[in-house]
Design goal:
Radius of gyration: 41 Å
Structural class: alpha/beta
Number of helices: 25
Strand order of the largest sheet: 25-24-23-22-21-20-19-18-26
Distance between the termini: 113 Å
Number of strands: 26
Helix content: 40-55%
Length: 691
């Protein structure tokens, strides 16, 4: 029992017995250090509390004992001090103890001094009491004594809860019997340093009664020679669940929750680790994958379907890769793959050609068969980058090149980097131009090829570049605006400016030509676009029938229901809809019948050999007759010669546009241009401004 008394006195945990009024009737050594004044005067266990502490300090000690009685336990954090001493922070647990009659007899208070840990020597006390045995049984941690050979001399009853073995079953046996072989040397190493440090904390695996491994954390203290035969005093707790929680938190911090793939940060670490361990004769390949057609599915069928599709693609990528390869998700429909290692570029290509058909296989979700493809960019270590960020960035650049050219995959080269830098420079210039008002609208007239009547003006965006800087074509800066997300503010500014100008002409002249505004595919497929057009018309006062929206065939095909619903809404307002660059793509003509269109614009490429090309004339005649049968007007673009105009007039073309009539001019030059066109027209029918 001397060992038991020594254990109770030497354990760093606070352990006290209280009477029903909260007076202390027994304290172990750690409790004495907290609750006894230097003069030895015994104090109430809640004599003073820091008023700035947590809300629990508002409770008196009797309130806390009452809650412990009602709930069978009370746990909390308190601050306490004795007169003249510093504040101490305590984490305590209070449990009521009943007598044989069932009435409340004592409270057991246990806890930790979380301000500082110490084990000062204190005189031994008589612990051969039932109350003390009960107190030791309530300790949650296992307190144990071991000799110099780590044979167990004593253990508290908590050992049964942790290991499934009773104290009697482990007394006299080595603590190493059930230690995991991989942890043995680490624990011995910690024990060898105890003479210098005095105390150590080790984590190790222990086999319980059922043979399962559990993680334990043991605080070991080297005892003085007066404790012989005991050499080590240990306090042990089961941290299996704690480590499982820590692992879960770490896993969630490193992985994408939707697909359970490594996220960007963890994938970068995997690439760096592969670089550090790569033999000099081997290569690494980093793949950047973007899904083709995913946005259409996600927008039309909903995010739930899109998420399910992403999970399928993630699993297919896992199944396709080799053992040492890695796959991650950066976000959206973008994935990254590390091929680790490869011996040649050809080996990387073989693996890429396995990935492409795996992604492209159809998948049925919610009863619908869905298809997506993949565009893949490839960068190689060490040729294309010396660090993970650079490798992924260059693979991303190569992926965009693959998407632009229509290839399924593309290797990075330095020319792509230069092109990317140029595009970034143009993006910066574009943002500056928007902020500083460097854009303006020019207008090109469209007239009847027979009468010369100007019925409409096409609004064309122009960039007033600062002096000394090279001009950038609208086709190029519009593409840059779409890529970098500036098409929405640029398109909104264009629509607002054109409608304001047309409304001003209408107020000045009493009428105005129809103004045509080009709208990109990205604008048309945004749910807010219809509301934006309505708002602009309302704010400017321009009648809807004076506005014409020009769209390309690509905006009509393969864009899902959003584009069609937007067109229907625009047409319902009275706005005219024109299809620009008609005939330049391979498209079905069914949309001419099914969509609310008003006119087709024949691309200028058809007019190149119009004068001397009977086949071209036959094609244009067929387009005009088909359009008129569907009640659609026909406009010919790129008219530069008088014979072209004459043939188009004979074929029944409704309007023509091109340098023969006039190039695009600024809004200030439009009145003079319209007057000049009227004066120069030689056709017998007088030119006039169509209302």
């Amino acid at each position: 029992m001397l060992w038991l008394a020594a254990t109770a006195q030497k354990t760093p945990d606070i352990s006290c017995l209280l009477d029903p009024q909260g007076r202390m009737v027994y304290l172990n050594q750690a409790a004495e250090a907290i609750f006894l004044a230097p003069e030895g005067m015994e104090l109430c266990w809640l004599a003073e509390f820091d008023p700035s502490d947590s809300p629990t300090t508002a409770l008196s000690h009797l309130d806390i004992l009452q809650k412990a009685s009602e709930d069978q336990s009370w746990r909390g954090f308190l601050k306490h001090r004795i007169p003249g001493a510093d504040w101490k922070s305590l984490a305590i647990t209070i449990v009521p103890l009943a007598a044989g009659t069932g009435e409340l007899a004592r409270f057991h208070l246990s806890g930790h001094d979380i301000t500082a840990l110490s084990l000062p020597a204190l005189p031994s006390i008589n612990i051969e009491t039932p109350q003390f045995a009960l107190m030791m049984g309530l300790l949650e941690d296992v307190v144990s004594l071991h000799d110099d050979h780590l044979n167990t001399l004593y253990a508290t009853p908590a050992v049964s809860r942790i290991t499934g073995l009773s104290p009697k079953q482990i007394i006299g046996k080595s603590a190493f019997i059930r230690i995991h072989p991989e942890d043995r040397q680490r624990v011995l190493h910690s024990l060898r340093h105890l003479k210098r440090q005095g105390e150590a904390v080790v984590r190790w695996r222990h086999s319980n009664r059922t043979g399962e491994w559990c993680w334990l954390e043991t605080r070991v203290r080297l005892l003085e020679s007066s404790w012989a035969p005991a050499t080590y005093l240990c306090a042990t707790r089961d941290i299996t669940q704690q480590l499982a929680t820590e692992e879960t938190v770490l896993w969630r911090a490193q992985h994408d929750i939707l697909t359970e793939l490594p996220n960007r940060e963890y994938f970068l670490k995997q690439v760096q680790s592969a670089i550090d361990m790569l033999p000099s004769e081997h290569l690494l390949a980093t793949l950047f994958i973007d899904l083709d057609g995913f946005k259409r599915i996600n927008d039309s069928l909903g995010h739930e379907t899109g998420d399910a599709l992403l999970r399928v693609v993630a699993q297919r990528l896992r199944d396709t890769l080799r053992t040492h390869d890695s796959v991650g998700r950066l976000g959206g429909d973008e994935f990254t793959i590390l091929l680790n290692p490869i011996h040649s570029i050809e080996e990387a290509e073989v693996l890429v050609r396995r990935i492409l058909p795996a992604v492209a296989r159809s998948v049925v979700i919610g009863g619908q068969e869905l298809f997506v493809g993949a565009s893949i960019g490839i960068s190689l270590y060490p040729d294309d980058g010396a660090d993970p960020e650079t490798l992924i960035q260059h693979a991303d650049v190569a992926m965009y090149q693959a998407k632009r050219t229509g290839n399924s995959f593309c290797y990075f080269d330095r020319s792509m980097h230069d092109a990317t830098q140029e595009r970034l420079r143009q993006e910066r210039c574009l943002r500056r131009a928007l902020d500083q008002g460097e854009f303006e609208m020019h207008y090109q007239p469209l007239c009847d090829p027979q009468t010369g009547e100007v019925g409409s003006l096409e609004a064309l965006l122009r960039w007033k570049r600062p002096a000394g800087e090279q001009p950038i074509s609208p086709a190029r800066f519009i593409a840059v605006a779409e890529e970098c997300g500036l098409i929405e503010p640029l398109g909104s500014w264009t629509l607002q400016t054109v409608c304001e100008q047309a409304a001003a002409w209408r107020a000045e002249w009493g009428s105005c030509p129809i103004v045509a505004v080009n709208v990109s595919t990205l604008q048309l497929t945004q749910p807010w676009f219809l509301r934006r057009v309505e708002s602009v018309l309302s704010n400017t006062g321009l009648p809807p029938e004076r506005l014409e929206i020009e769209i390309t065939e690509s905006a009509l095909l393969g864009q899902g229901n959003i584009a069609q619903e937007t067109l229907a809404g625009l047409h319902a307002l009275g706005i005219r809809i024109a299809v620009d660059d008609f005939g330049t793509g391979y498209s079905s003509l069914s949309y001419l019948r099914d969509l609310p269109l008003d006119c087709l614009k024949i691309d200028a490429a058809f007019l190149v050999d119009l004068v001397n090309g009977p086949q071209t004339q036959a094609i244009i005649r067929a387009i005009i007759e088909l359009s008129h049968a569907l009640s659609l007007e026909v406009i010919a673009e790129g008219v530069e010669e008088a014979p072209q105009r004459q043939i188009l007039a004979e074929l029944g073309c409704d309007r023509i546009q091109g340098y023969l009539i006039s190039p695009a001019v600024s809004a200030l030059a439009i009145p003079d241009l319209l007057h000049r066109l009227k004066d120069e027209e030689t056709h017998p029918a007088p030119l006039r401004l169509v209302a």
